[in-house]
Design a protein that fits this description.
Length: 113
């Protein structure tokens, strides 16, 4: 069966590093205003439930870790490599105006007869 999230294993790892039970983690998240039960933590860690994006923020706050730490190592490595690249150049003013005009043209309402 395919896992429904890629962060559950890391969540379990960090929870165990802090020697917290699933119930403790759920209680800490609830204190921050996140509606997560112990059962939800268990199904996230097992990969049986997807992770909502706002829960990732909760994990980050509870563990006081960068968000990237909740992703598998290959994603962390890829992110580090991506961060070393030069930023993409900004488009010049000529090309940035063309899409706007085209969009304005496409969104104009036809004249009523």
């Amino acid at each position: 069966m395919r896992r429904k999230n890629i962060t559950g294993r890391q969540l379990a790892y960090w929870r165990n590093q802090n020697r917290w039970t699933q119930k403790t983690l759920a209680a800490r998240l609830q204190c921050l205003g996140f509606g997560i039960s112990r059962e939800m933590v268990a199904t996230i860690e097992a990969g049986l439930r997807g992770v909502e994006d706002n829960w990732l923020v909760g994990f980050q706050k509870v563990f006081r870790l960068p968000l990237i730490r909740f992703f598998p190592q290959e994603i962390q490595d890829s992110d580090a490599e991506f961060g070393k690249r030069d930023p993409a150049p900004l488009p010049d003013s000529k090309t940035s105006k063309q899409p706007r005009r085209k969009c304005q043209k496409l969104t104009k309402r036809p004249k009523e007869v």
